[in-house]
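fyi for ur records
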Amino acid sequence: MRLKKFLFFLGLVVLTGRCSHSDTLLPNPQSYYPLQVGDYRIYQVTSTSYSQLACIAQANDTTRIYFLKTLVTDSAKNAEGGYTYLIQRFTTPDTTQAWINLDVWSARVTANQVVINEGNISYVKIIFPLKDSTTWNGNLYNNLGAANYKLISHNVPFILNSEKKFLTSLTVSQSNVQNLVNKDVETEVYAPPAGLIYKELSVFNYLTDGNCFGAKVIKSGFYYRQTLLRYGHQ
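which gave:
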């Protein structure tokens, strides 16, 4: 009798373990960049432009903080047999004010890649299957020259801020150049079901004259940070 009870208990443990494992199944890769007409995302953007003519000159830096909204407005069948989605972008200095039309982008997600057309320039943002340290040419569909994109990590938690925590995310490095003359570090983070949740770019040219050489004093360039505030469907 005790043996039967033990075997019954052992069976429950095995079944419970299987259920727990199924709850932790990895997300569909395409869910990192969901596309559906009516989807919107609102971001806060911080943008700083840098200008300093000489090592002892005064810096002329300008910082802007504003808000960006993206809205998937339409879709159409494409030559690959899938759909291309139109993404209207809006800006406003304050979310209590009216949104102002900025431009229109487009995007498509296939079985092996995510391609986004930004201002008539197409970039391969993500490739599938997802595998850490995978590299690819982000400029495959444009004439800007090869760009070495790299999947830094995927299926790892990401804390956007104290209020937004995503159970899984992927991080793509679009550039990682750092030396005594310039810096070009560009990173994007995606998480289901939101899509792009964070973007950061640091693109600088350093002053190299006199005592400035090696001090990494910014001569020209910009910093850009885009952080997701909320997302949904309208």
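The helical segments are 2-23. thats all i got for now
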